[in-house]
Fold each of these.
Amino acid sequence: MTLEWQNACKTFTDKKAVDNLSLEVSEGELLVLIGPSGCGKTTSLKMINRLVQPDSGAVFVNGRDVSEVPATELRRHIGYVIQQVGLFPHMSVADNVAAVPRLLKWEKDRIDDRVKELLNLVGLPADEFADAWPSRLSGGEAQRVGVARALAADPPILLMDEPFGAVDPLTREVLQREFLRIQSTLGKTVVFVTHDLDEAIRLGDRIAVMNEGRLAAVAAPGELLLNADPFIRDFTGEDRALRRLARLSVGAAIGEATPITAAGFSGGGESGAPAGSVRTDATLKEALSMMLEAGETSLEAVSPAGRRIGKLTMEDLLESAAGTEAS
Amino acid sequence: MRERFDVVPLAALFLGAASFLMPFAALKENRVVDGLLLNGFQLAGPLYGTVAVLTAFGVLTGVFLMKNGSRRRLLYAAAGVVCFWLTAALLVRAGMMLTGGAAPRVSPAIGFWGLPAASYVLIDHSKKGRWRMWILLVVMLLPAALLLAGGRGEAISVFREWSARKGRFFDELIVHIRLFGMAVISAAVLGIPLGILASRDKRIGEPVTAFVDAVQTIPSMALFGLLMAPLAALSRTFPLLRAMGIRGIGAAPALIALTLYALLPIVRNTVAGLASVPLSAIDAGLGLGMSQRQLFYRVEWPMALPHVLTGLRTASVQAVGNTAVAALIGAGGLGIMIFQGLGQAAPDLILLGVIPLILIAVAVDRSWGFMIRRWVSPGLDMKGLSA
C-alpha cells in the first residue's frame, strides 16, 4: 500500500497547521514525521485516516482519494496507535484487541485466535494478559496492547502518533526494538510521528522534517544528518555527527557489511570483545567512545564470534561522519 | 505491624450502653398519657443486666486481643446479631411488665435506639460477603421474629397502631412505593436522554442544567403548591384530563414534583459520566473505525454507566423520602401516617410511617448497589462513587 499527500492544506481558525504538503510513502516504508510541536505532523497524520479533513489538496491511499472512501470503512483498514494509548478501560485486554475484528464482524473463533496470536507477537503472553483490565497494566504493557489492537485486523497501513512518547526511556528503547522486530516480519507501510530525533533516526527509513506546517526536508536518516539547510542543521543539533555514527556499524566502516545487532542499540558494544578491540556489530559511536576512553586512535575490529577482521582507525570514523561512506 | 486502633466496637459499646442507662421504653396505659420510663437495666433485671454488661466487656476485650481477620469480623457479626435479639427481648420483657389500662402499650423511648444502632454498626463493620449477609439477616431476624410472635409483641406501640389500621397501612405502603417508583422511572426516561443531549450540545446543556438546578432550590412544599394552581386550571378546562385523574391535588402534582426533583441527580450524573470519558478513548474509538453510534454504545455509554447508575441511586433514595411530603397534597403514601401522628401528637403513629420509610430507603439503596456491581465493568474505577 502506498500513501500520498498532494498539496494538502489545513487551517485551524487563524493558524496554518499544514501548508501545501506533498509527500509520498512507498509500500512497506517506515516514514517518520518529525518537527517541533505545532509543526503540523499530527494533523498530517490524521488526514490519512480522515480524522482531519484537508481544506484543499488530497490524500491518496493506494492511488485512491481517501475522501471517497467512507471514513469508518477506511479506518478499519488502517491501524492507529496514539500516545495516550486510549485503551477502553471497561474492556479486558482481549476485548480491546478484538475491537476492530468485531467491527468487521469476524467469527468468534477467528477473533479469539487472532487476539492470542497478537498478544504473543507484542510480547504479552495471552494466558496471562487476555483477561487483564487495562488499569492494571504498566505504561509499556498498555502501549503494547495499543499496538496489538492497531494490528488486529492486519491493516496494510499503520499510523503511529508518538506511540512511545509517554513511557520511560528504558521501556521506550525496548518498545522501539520490538517494534522494529515486528515491522521486519510484517512489512507494513508505516507513518510514525515523533518529536524525538533519536527515535526518528533509529526507526525511520526516511525522515520528513516539518516546520510551521511546511515540509522542510525529507531524506534517509544518514543524509538528513548531512543536510546543510540552517533549520535542519539547527534541528539535528551540534551532535548530529555522533547521531550519524550511531547509525553505522563498525563492520560497515571497514568494508565488512555487518548489521547493527539488537545489542548495539542498547549500548552493549563492549560485550565479549577483549581490550583494545571492538565488535563489528557495535555502532561507530560506541567505537569512538571506546577510543576516547582508551586514548587510542585505532581499535582491532573483531567479529561477534571473536575472529579478528581488521583495524578501525580514527580516519575511518572521520570519513564515516563526513558521509563519504554510503549509509 | 501495629494496626490502626479500631473505634467501631467502642462506638457500639457506647450505643448499646445508652439502651441500658437511658430510658429504653415507656410503659403506658394508652396512647396519650405519659408512661413509666424504664431503662434497659431495669427491664432486664439485675441478673440478666449483669450478664449483658459482662458479655459486652468480654467481647470488647476479645476484639482488642484478636488480630484483624475473618474471625474478628465473625465476632462483630455475632455481637451485632445479639444486640438485635436483645432489642426484641427487652421489648417483650417490657410488654410483660405492663399492668393494665384501656390499651396498654410499650413505646420506645430515647434509649431504645442504642441497641439497634449498635447492631447496625457492628454488622456493617463485619464486611461479610454477599450470600453470608443473607444468612446473617436470617439468623438475626428469625429468632427476633419468633420472640415477638405469639402475641408477645402485641403490646409494642407501633404494632398497636399498625393492628388498628392494617388495611390502610398496606394501601398507603403500596401507594408510596408506586408513587416513588413511577417518579424515578419517569425521571430516568426523561433525564437520561436529556443528559445525553445536554452533553452533546452546549446550547441544550446550559439551559437544561440551569433548569434542574433551579428546581432543586424550590422547597418541596412550595413546588407542590406551585403545581396545584396550574393543574387545577388545566383540569377545569379539559374534562379529558380530569377523567384521567389529573387534578390540582392528588397523585398528578405529586408525581410531577417528585419527577422534577429526581431529575437533577440523573441529568447531572449522566452529563458528568459522559464528560468523564477521556478524549483519548474517543480518539482511539474513532480512529479504529467506529461510527458515532458504535462509539456511543461500545465506549461512551459503558464508561458513563457508573455515574449514571449512581445518579439513579441518589434519585431513588431521595424520592423515597420526598414522597412522604406528597401526602400533604392528598397523594397518599406513608406520609399519611406521619402527618396524622404529628397532628394527633402520637409519636407511635409517626414511627409507623417512618420505620417502613427507612427500611424502603435502605432496601432501595442496597438494591442499586447490587445492580451497580452487576452491570458496571470491573475494569472501571469506582473511586469517588459509592459502590
Amino acid sequence: MSPSPGPKATRVVALIPAHNEEATVFEVVRAVRQRIPEVVVIDDASSDRTAQVAREAGAVVISHAINRGVGAALRTGYRYALERGFDVIVQIDADGQHDPRYIPQLLEALSEGYDLVIGSRFLNESYRSYSWVRRAGIRFFTWLGNRLGGLRITDITSGYRAYKAKALQHLGPLPDRHWAVEQTLEAARKGLRIKEISVEMPLRQKGRSQFDLSTFLWYPIRVADSVLRILLFRR
Amino acid sequence: MRLINVVGLLVGVYLLVQSYRLVRRREEDTLSFLTWTGVGLALVGVSLFPNAADYVMRALGMEMRAYTIFTLGILIAYVLLFRLFRAVIRLDQAISTLNEEISLLKAQRERDRGASRPTGAGAGDEP
C-alpha cells in the first residue's frame, strides 16, 4: 500500500515585466530568487540587453516580439503561470523600486485568506519622494477606485502585488497599458478579498524612468476608459 | 455636361473598375465590393442624370441639391469611419494576441531545447 500523499505544496512564481531595464533587472531577479526560485521575466521587446541579463541572473525569459505595454506583458505572464499550474503569483517591477524583502509579507497576507495583496507606498513616507503631480494622480485614481469599488485602499496604481491564481482566473484580460486601476476595480466588483501592506518604494536609482510626458497626458484618458469599461461591461 | 459631372463620372467608373479588379484578384471581400460598387454606381448615376438627385433631395426634405449630396456623403463617411475604427481595434487586439502566443511558444521551444540537451560531462558544451 502506497503512503497517502501529503498536503500539496503551494507553487509560487514571480513575474517581472520589463522593458529596457538592463541596468536593474539582474539585481532584481537575483534578489527575488532568494525568496521565490521560479522567476519569469516578460521582456516587452526591449532594445537593450534586458532579456540576456535576466537569463544570466537565472530567470525564465519570455520575449515579446512587439512592445505592447506592461499590461500586455503581465497578461502573458499570467497565462504562463496559470497554464503551468502555479498557485500564487507575485508581481514585481524590474526597475528596482520594489524591494523583494517584502515578498514574505505579501505571501503571508495571501495565506490569511486574501485573494489580492497590494504593496502600498502611501502607508509609509516613501511616497513623499514622488512629484506632486504623480502623487495627486495616484490619490485621485485611488479615491475614484475606492468610491466605485467600495474599497478602502491607498495605492491603486501600485504594481507590487501578489495573487492567488484561482482568484486571477475570475478577472478579465488586462488592457495593454494602464492596467492597475482596471484590475483592482474589477477584483473589487467581483468580490475578491483585497488587502494592502506597507511597502517603501523610493524613486528608482538606476536606469531611465518609463514615465514621460505622453504617459502623463494619456494616463487620465486611459484610466477613464478602464473605469467605464468596468462599470458598463464587466459584472 | 458640366466639369463636375465629368469628374464624378470618372471617379464612379474608377471605383467600379478598381473594385471589380480587386475582387478578381481575390484582394477584396464581397461586402466591400458591393459597398464600393454601390458608391460607384451612385456617382455615375448622379453624374449622368444630375436631376436624379432632386428626387432624393425632395424625399429627404432638403432644399438644395448640394446639401443633399454633402449630407449623404457625410453619413456614408461616418459609416465607413465606424467600420474602419472597428477594423483597427480588431487588428490591434489580434497583434497583441499574436505577440503573446509567439512569445509563449518561443519560451516553450527554448525550454524544450534545454530539456533535450544531453546531460553529463559534455552538457552545455557547444560544438
